[in-house]
Amino acid sequence: MKGNDLMMIKKYSIMALAAVSLALPATGLAVAQEAAPAQPQAEQPMAEQYSDDTLRSFATAFLQVDEVNREYTPRLQEATTPEEQEQIQAEASQQMVSIVEESDVTVQEYTSIMQAAQADPALAEKLTQYIGEASGGAPAPAQ
């Protein structure tokens, strides 16, 4: 994998993770995550913890979340008051969570995959491949 691909995955994973995380309190998942005991890291590489079907579903959801991000970023930048920014951000986050919930991964799995991709170059490479496939063979989205 090229360094640019890994940097792009990290950039988008941070953006999408932040967007999805902002909406978690509204879905009640934040409380469930806080209450869940920490699980020890498995010894196998992170890329092997997820099935190919799960990663493909993630890739499809990732592209749709990216579309929402592209749609709302200009609106957020044009907002003139903090209240307007909050409202736009909440709207975008709600759409992003809905997209993830409609995919074959949960919001928690989506977030977990995003975090794992930041730490595991093999997983990031696999996701780059699946994102490219899901986008019709084009490279992963760039901004």
From TrEMBL:
Record InterPro entries: DUF4168 (IPR025433)
Record-annotated membrane-spanning stretches: none
Annotated ranges, domain DUF4168: 51-126
Matches recorded under Pfam families: DUF4168 (PF13767)
Disordered: region residues: 76-95
Annotated signal peptide: 1-32
Keyword set, alphabetical order: Signal
Protein name: DUF4168 domain-containing protein
Organism in which the protein naturally occurs: Georhizobium profundi
